[in-house]
Amino acid sequence: MNTLRPQAEQQYAEELAELKKMDTKQRPENWELSPWAVITYLLGGKLPNGFEIEPKYIGSRRLMEVAVSTLATDRALLLMGVPGTAKSWVSEHLAAAISNNSALLIQGTAGTSEDQIRYSWNYARLLAEGPSEKALVASPMMRGMVDGKMVRMEELTRIPSDVQDTLITILSEKVLPIPEINQQIQANRGFNVIATANDRDKGVNDLSSALKRRFNTVVLPLPSSLEEEVNIVQTRVDKLGLSLKLPAEKPAIEEIRRLVIIFRELRSGQTADGKTKLKVPSSTLSTAEAISVINQGQSLAAYFSDGRLKAADLAAGIVGAIVKDPVQDTIVWKEYMETVIKDRADWKDLYRACKEFSK
User: Which is it for strands 105-107 and 150-154: parallel, antiparallel or unpaired?
Assistant: First the structure.
C-alpha cells in the first residue's frame, strides 16, 4: 500500500479481523465489534489464540470504557483535552473498531457551514429539475445516519456557534429534516457522533448549554508520568518511521527521554526535581509535538547525517516547537538553556547544539 496515511481500518485490518473472529460477546446493533473487543483494540492485549493486539492508546482504561459505553447509548461523545492528548487518534480508532469506517469525517473550522453538516445540492440538477432526492448531496453526517455508522467531528469548538446548533435536532431526535422536499432522514441503529474539542487555541466558540447536554464529555489528560509519555512517543515514532520508510536507525531512548523532560518541565513551570521555577512558553508542548520533533530529527539524521539521531538533529525541532512567539518565547527558552540544560552534566551536547541553533 502506497498511501501516505492509511485509515485506521486499513492499517489495522488484520487486528480487526482477528478480534471479530474471537469476539463472542454481545454487540450493540450494527456494531462490528462488542464493547469488550473495542477496548481490547484500543488498549491492546493478547487474544485467546495468542494473537497480539497493539495498544493504540496508552492511558486510563476507565476513560476508554466510559467513551465506548457512551457510544452504545443515544448520547454523543465529546473528547476534550489540550492539543496533543490523542483526541483525534482515539476518535479515529473508535470509529474504525465500531463501524469499520473512520472516513465519515467533518473537519471543524471557522468556515464550516450548515450545508457541510446537513446536506448540500447538485446545483446543475437543482436548477434543471428543482429540489429532489436525486439533487441532494449527502454529507458525512447524512451518510452515517442512513448507514448506521459513527460520524467524526473534529475541532467542534472552531465551528461558529450558530452552525454548531445544527446538531441539536440530529443528536436529540436522531432526525435530519429536509424541508425543501418535505422529507426527513431518520438515523438507523449504530449511528452516533464522536466529536473532539480543545479550549486552549485561539478562535474557540463555546458550546451552547443545549448542545452540551447532548454530549457526554470525556477529558483526555496529558500523560501522568515521564515513563508513560516516553513510551507513547517511542511507540508512535517507531510506527511513523516505518510508515514514512525513513532510512534511519530507531531513535535512542535517551534522546526521547531528554526531549520529553524538556517539554514536561516547560509545561509545568518547574524542573523535575521541583527545585527551580521556570517561565512557561506560549506553546502547548504536547506529546504530539514531541513525536513531531523526534520524527523531524530522524529525517535530518537519515538524509544529512549517518542515520543515528543526535542532539544536533533535535535542536532545530526543539527550538521550533518552543519558540512560537519570537519575543516572549525566546526569553523563556534562552533562560531555560542557561539555567537548566547547561548545568546537566550529560546534556552538554544538547546545550551546544541548541545554543548554536538559537544564535
Answer: parallel
First to last CA, the chain: 43
C-alpha distances out from residue 64 to 68, 70, 78, 221, Å = 6, 10, 12, 12
For 188, the grid coordinates are: 438507523
Q: Is 203 exposed, middle or buried (0-12, 13-18, 19+ CB in 10 A)?
A: exposed
Residues 6+ apart with CB under 8 A from 189: 28, 29, 30, 148
One-letter amino acid at 330 equals T
Which ranges of the chain would DSSP assign to H, the alpha helix?
8-11, 13-22, 35-43, 61-71, 87-99, 114-117, 123-129, 140-147, 161-164, 167-173, 209-212, 226-244, 253-268, 287-304, 311-322, 328-336, 348-357
- The edge-to-edge listing of strands for the beta sheet with 215-219 is 105-107, 150-154, 192-197, 76-80, 215-219
Q: Is 171 helix (H, G, I), strand (E, B) or coil?
A: helix
- Provide the residue-wise pLDDT of the chain in tens; the chain has 359 residues: 577 788 999 999 999 999 999 999 999 999 999 999 999 999 999 999 999 999 999 989 999 999 999 999 989 999 998 888 899 999 999 999 999 999 999 999 999 999 999 999 999 999 998 899 999 999 999 999 999 999 999 999 999 999 999 999 999 999 999 999 999 999 999 999 999 998 776 567 788 899 999 999 999 998 889 999 999 999 888 888 777 777 767 788 899 999 999 999 999 999 999 999 999 998 889 898 999 999 999 999 889 988 889 999 999 999 999 999 999 999 999 999 999 999 998 999 999 999 988 77
Cβ-contact 120, 137 below 8 angstroms = yes
DSSP state of 340: I
Q: Given its phi and psi angles, is residue 60 left (phi above 0), alpha (psi -120 to 50 degrees) or beta?
A: beta
All 3 cell numbers of residue 191?
Answer: 449511528
Is the pTM higher than 0.85? The answer reads yes
